[in-house]
Automatic annotation (TrEMBL):
Alphabetical keyword list: Cytoplasm, Methyltransferase, S-adenosyl-L-methionine, Transferase, tRNA processing
One cellular-component annotation, GO: cytoplasm
Matching PANTHER family: TRNA (GUANINE(37)-N1)-METHYLTRANSFERASE (PTHR23245:SF36), TRNA METHYLTRANSFERASE (PTHR23245)
Entry superkingdom: Bacteria
Protein name: SAM-dependent methyltransferase TRM5/TYW2-type domain-containing protein
An example Gene Ontology biological process: tRNA N1-guanine methylation
Annotated SAM-dependent methyltransferase TRM5/TYW2-type domain residues: 23-277
Pfam families, per the entry: TRM5-TYW2_MTfase, TYW2_N_2
One function term, GO molecular function aspect: tRNA methyltransferase activity
PROSITE patterns: SAM_MT_TRM5_TYW2
SUPFAM superfamilies in the record: S-adenosyl-L-methionine-dependent methyltransferases
Amino acid sequence: MQLKKTLHRRFPDLDPARLPGGFDRVGDIAVIGIPPEAAAHEREIGEILLEMHPTIRVVARRDGQYGGEFRTRPLRILAGEQRLTTTHRENGVTLHLDLARVYFSVRSAHERARIAALVQPGERVAVLCSGVGPFPLIIGRHSHAAEVIGIEKNPVAHQYAVRNLTANRTKATVRFLEGDAALVLPGLQRRFDRMLIVLPHGGEALLPCALDALKADGSLHFYDMGAKDGHAATMAKVETVCRQHNRCPRPRRVVTCGHCGPATFRFCLDAVIDATV
């Protein structure tokens, strides 16, 4: 709210309700949404944000929705240095990334810690669509998993994941593989105790290969987005594919783990997948 108050003092003719009140911070980059009513002052707003937060070096505006095969989001620099690469730290790990070329949600930091706390000693964990590696690296640091494998199709994100693996001096139990998870996972010829499908949209397409590689009574974490009351829809997606593969999800709990706008929420289905229906 401090940002909104400062902007209102600077632009008293603008409706305070139409001024940005917050931003996402990724490393030393502030990512902010600018309402249309304030667009004429966007560069001034960027400079004000730099003044308020001396450790921020770049202010970028969200310039569209996530899209494309790798779910990147268009950003436009308003103030500061002309770059979208940064180094972000969360949950005890360091992540190098390029916001223009990879998908990364700073709002999922708590969720990543939550999942890491669920991993039991000796588990083998697979993370599908692992991006620059936050889930595998945090699980590797905060659990005693026997193996953590991240699979990512975006070659730029995979390169950053490999760099982050080195930067964090993570246990040898963590490794990253590049490629389409639907093709890479079967080639591993092993079964996992815990499976994460982190794709923000369309993750149900990976459920068949995930179920084939998940042990009987293994744990599944399936991510989805939808309306506030969308728990049932998320659960239905998983139940449908499980039935087709003669598997049964239980206890079928859906956790709300963030939001991507006033009407779009992020869900995670936590389930143990029985061997047969």
